Amino acid sequence: MTEETPGFDEQQPPQAQPQQPDVPSGATSDDAEPKAAPQEGAAPAGDAAAAQTAAQQQVTALTAQLDQVRTALGERTADLQRLQAEYQNYRRRVERDRITVKEVAIANLLTELLPVLDDIGRARDHGELVGGFKSVAESLETVAAKLGLQQFGKEGEPFDPTIHEALMHSYAPDVTETTCVAILQPGYRFGERTIRPARVAVAEPQPGAQTVKGDETDASASSDADDKENGGPDEG
User: What is the 3-state secondary structure (H, E, C) of the chain?
Assistant: First the structure.
């Protein structure tokens, strides 16, 4: 008989055990099973057509919104340009009115100074513009000239009713048209504005002078014509 060693069995080869996946504590065995990957396949034709239609509708809606934005932008741009043009016109109008008001104010001031300038002119003509009065008078005339006051009116210039005022009238044989023969008061202008016309004495051509001159010319021409017809003057 074979003696058996107490406490030891015959060693048997270990059987292969199936490998189990690691299962975390608290999880069931179903969780450890790998899930099947979703099957990849082509989308149904109806879903593709619906998606394409939705995309086209979205593009159409965005295009319509873009057109609205462009229209609104064009309207706002036109409003801005119109507002800018109105503002520029307003600025020019205000500047023009400001210049006009300034010119009127200066013209009114110079008009009030004209009697003083006339007195200075008369004092100069009589030799009374001397001493300190002369310096003050010349300073006043200089200031008036800087403001734009211009004096006009000279003897011998043709009479112009737009800038001359005739206070005296006479006839003269040595003039061929109505002429200013004396300046009683000089005229003044400020820019293109006539503040006061020149007050003058005028002379017109002597009545009948042109007629007599014309008769003499006609007689001389007639005599020359007769000489030509007769072959020249007779020799004595």
Answer: CCCCCCCCCCCCCCCCCCCCCCCCCCCCHHHHCCCCCCCCCCCCHHHHHHHHHHHHHHHHHHHHHHHHHHHHHHHHHHHHHHHHHHHHHHHHHHHHHHHHHHHHHHHHHHHHHHHHHHHHHHHHHCCCCCHHHHHHHHHHHHHHHHCCEEEECCCCCECCCCCEEEEEEEEECCCCCCEEEEEEECEEEECCEEEECEEEEEEEECCCHHHHHHHHHHHHHHHHHHHHHCCCCCCC
